[in-house]
Design brief:
single chain, alpha+beta, Sortase, Chain: A, eight-stranded mixed β-sheet, 5 helices
Length: 301
């Protein structure tokens, strides 16, 4: 067998290095794509987080919608807008059963009775069966209103928004209020629906869904470990605002354990969140769908 001399060997090495460099350039440019690693832990694979800036046209649309709805009802706070179009719904907030001028709101019970005695009611009861745009009782068309928790300030660590879930008999198309959120119970619907804008009076806050889980009102441990209703996680709003420095960290751990699937989104105690709550079909009052979204950016407009 003929031996290769040093000069020939050196030439072969140079040629090989040139080929490797060319392949690297093509991969970097996206011309050649390497096969993705198999998803061994069932984590949902999604593109990198999109901290996008909305276009002037979109911001103008948001501004017009805000101004129009604020003129209808001063309790209007903003819009929840999914990039995918899954949900685009207005939400309101009543801080109390009394308006700023001291007069009592007109609002209704689930069976359509006008509330006369406001004792034992909070601002959350004002819009749960009352439609924000008309002030009328609404059970079937809109299911009342989508509303932010009466305790919330927009500066809070956790904003909580509630919306109704409709049964098939009065929402065959599955488009009313928070009904479309049922799609997020299945991980195959996560990637396309993970990004959400919260449109407020002078800013658009962008969120990414960090976790989806079910809150079971029949389980005591859910009431202790999964208190999604805290406006500031380390403070217990319902017990004299008691302080617990570890609650947020423990809540994240409990959610990771309870979540229906791993979104792959990093979520820490430094993050501000938006929590969406709705019922799960056939289990009203017992089983709730909870969606926790992490704020990733804010854009003034």
């Amino acid at each position: 067998m003929k031996r290769t001399d040093k000069k020939t060997l050196f030439g072969m090495i140079i040629s090989l290095l040139a080929i490797v460099a060319s392949i690297f350039v093509l991969i970097s440019a996206g011309v050649i794509r390497l096969p993705e690693k198999a998803n061994e832990d069932e984590t949902v694979l999604v593109p990198e987080t999109e901290e996008k800036q909305q276009t002037d046209q979109t911001l103008e649309k948001y501004r017009k919608t805000y101004q129009e709805n604020k003129a209808i009802n001063p309790d209007y706070v903003g819009e929840i807008v999914f990039d995918s179009g899954l949900i685009e719904v207005p939400f309101v907030q009543a801080k109390s059963v009394y308006k700023e001028d001291g007069t009592m709101y007109e609002f209704y019970t689930e069976d359509g009775r006008l509330v006369q005695d406001p004792e034992n009611y909070t601002g959350n009861d004002v819009y749960i069966w009352t439609y924000w745009a008309t002030g009328e009782y609404d059970y079937n068309d809109h299911g009342g209103s989508t509303f932010m928790d009466y305790r919330n300030e927009l500066s809070d660590q956790n904003l909580i928004i509630y919306g109704h879930h409709f049964s098939v008999w009065n929402d065959e198309e599955r488009i009313k209020a928070f009904t479309p959120l049922e799609k997020l119970l299945e991980k195959e619907n996560y990637a396309e629906n993970r990004l959400v804008d919260l449109v407020l009076g002078n800013e658009v806050r962008r969120y990414e869904i960090a976790a989806v889980y079910q809150f079971d009102a029949t389980k005591e441990e859910h009431f202790t470990d999964l208190q999604y209703w805290r406006t500031n996680y380390n403070y217990d709003d319902y017990h004299d605002n008691a302080y617990d420095s570890e609650y947020y960290a423990n809540y994240i751990k409990a959610v990771k354990k309870a979540q229906l699937y791993d979104t792959g989104v990093s979520w820490t105690t430094d993050d501000k969140t938006l929590t969406l709550q709705t019922c799960i079909g056939g289990h009203a009052g017992e089983l709730f769908e909870i969606i926790v979204l992490k704020q990733i950016s804010s854009q003034a407009y």
